[in-house]
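Notes, p. 3: input format for complexes.
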Amino acid sequence: MSELIDETIYSNRKTIAIEVKPGGRVIVRAPKGTRRANIEQFVHEKSGWILQAKARLAAVPVENPKQQFHNGADVLYLGKLWRLIHTPKVTKGLAFDPRQGFLLQEGRLEAAPGFLKAFYREETRGLVKVYIEKHANRWGLKPTSVRITSAMTRWGSCSGRNGLNFSYRLAMLPPEAIEYVVVHELAHIRHHNHSAAFWNCLGQMLPDYQQRRQWLKQNGRKLPQV
Ligand SMILES: [Zn+2]
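Output follows (226 residues plus zinc ion):
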């Protein structure tokens, strides 16, 4: 696949169109059944324009609002909002307490984004492991590696060598959506594309995947930027 394309969306449209989003994400919209080679050719012809648009939009902030860390701020974790409370003494600077929410060491405002990222990263690592264990063996799928990344615009990816990558931001999502992302990437081990066969396979692995996917589509862009 062209390295310029981040996402291809097939629908009942008549022509191929390219859209470059804030942040530089490239989305290709194509009529259902368009051959990959035709899309590649189209993108190749427009590559000059795409690169210019990407450069222009790279610095434009995506929709996601900036995470706040003042006393009383909201922090998203597993699809729920929790209160951030400034506290005199907190081990490691930030801690999560299911009865109170997130506790941030007083005076550590500047370090707070780093603390929260580290927390999300660890939680994501654990949750991804749980869902891989739940689904991978059952379907005979074996990731060669699992990495947690800092990706802002994609939740996960599967490399040509079946290494899976997941954004640390997964920990913000409801568990059902996290499971969807994990199973989606696992299904890519079998089908390295978004063909009908891929969606079929995903449907067998996770019969209610469409609802879960819908949640991500509706809410993914609104989640905060840490
Ligand atoms: Zn995919």
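The CA atoms of residues 2 and 40 lie 6 Å apart.
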